């Protein structure tokens, strides 16, 4: 089944290059994903195609207005039987994580709304029953780049998008750890050599080395991730031990 991703934006031309190369291009050509761009400005009610206005209560900047966003979202939702999971890209949203990307990749349809200016009129979130998603604790000029990040993170998880089904599983955060270091030819470069174990052909030892490297790298660079991984491992071990004890009792 082809996943559909709709993007509601004021600048659809920003997506032309990212969607026309590499994994995203191949995924579309192979029918793995359909990505459709809709220009919010085309749904403005007035002749000037106005989509923003000054905030009530004063303050700097402009705010995206309800009417064009509602009209665009409702039109796009009506194009398919599934209304789609509607997501506003905003710094106020929940953080995008690998777990969230995996969750989103299981949806048949996503609708991403890229904001601009000072943000959305609050009634857009309320009235469209939208969830909010952020790609980090910083501010961008608009939600288009954030939408591209979400699209890339999600599409590469779809079956067949990467070609090698193990690629996504081995990525950083795939199992809650940072990825192990990679090496390729030549074996020696400017005095730096490939670890001998990777040349050994012993796949068991190589797998063990990679796990150790992932654990070490995660502990050093992202102690928060390492602590979370350790907690999950300990919880799993407790569950397995409990189940084993119950089997012995019965």
Short description:
This protein has 250 residues and is of the alpha/beta class. The chain has helices spanning 22-29, 66-77, 98-105, 122-127, 144-155, 166-169, 203-221, 223-249, and strands at 3-9, 33-39, 52-53, 63-64, 85-95, 109-114, 131-134, 188-189, 192-193. The strands form 3 sheets. Strands 2-1-6-5-7 form a 5-stranded parallel beta sheet, with helices on both faces. It has a two-stranded antiparallel ribbon with strand order 3-4.
Describe this structure in words.
It is a single chain. By secondary structure, the protein is of the alpha/beta class. It is built from eight helices and nine strands.
What keywords describe this structure?
Alpha/beta knot; 8 helices; 17% strand; two-stranded antiparallel ribbon; alpha/beta; 250 residues; single chain
Any chance you could write out the topology, listing elements then pairs?
Blueprint lengths: L2 E7 L12 H8 L3 E7 L12 E2 L9 E2 L1 H12 L7 E11 L2 H8 L3 E6 L7 H6 L3 E4 L9 H12 L10 H4 L18 E2 L2 E2 L9 H19 L1 H27 L1
Parallel strand pairs: 1-2, 1-6, 5-6, 5-7
Antiparallel strand pairs: 3-4, 8-9
Helix pairs in contact: 3-5, 7-8
């Amino acid at each position: 089944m082809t996943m559909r991703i709709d993007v509601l934006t004021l600048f659809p031309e920003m997506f032309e290059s990212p969607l026309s190369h590499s994994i995203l291009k191949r995924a579309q050509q192979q029918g793995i994903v359909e990505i459709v761009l809709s220009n919010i400005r085309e749904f403005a009610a007035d002749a000037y195609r106005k989509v923003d206005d000054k905030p009530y209560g004063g303050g700097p900047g402009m705010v995206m207005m309800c009417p064009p966003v509602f009209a665009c979202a409702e039109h796009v939702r009506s194009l398919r039987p599934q209304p789609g999971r509607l997501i506003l890209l905003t710094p106020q949203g929940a953080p995008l994580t690998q777990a969230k990307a995996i969750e989103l990749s299981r949806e048949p349809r996503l609708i991403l709304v890229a904001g601009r200016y000072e943000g959305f009129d609050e009634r857009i979130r309320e009235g469209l029953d939208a969830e909010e998603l952020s790609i980090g604790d910083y501010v961008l000029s608009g939600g288009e780049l954030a939408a591209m990040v979400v699209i890339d993170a999600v599409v590469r998880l779809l079956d067949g998008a990467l070609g090698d089904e193990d690629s996504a599983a081995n990525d950083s955060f795939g199992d809650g750890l940072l990825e192990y270091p990679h090496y390729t030819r030549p074996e020696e470069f400017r005095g730096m050599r490939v670890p001998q174990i990777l040349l050994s052909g012993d796949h068991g030892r190589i797998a063990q080395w990679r796990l150790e490297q992932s654990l070490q790298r995660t502990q050093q660079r992202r102690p928060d991730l390492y602590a979370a991984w350790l907690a999950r491992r300990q919880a799993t071990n407790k569950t397995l031990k409990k189940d084993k004890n119950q089997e012995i009792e019965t």
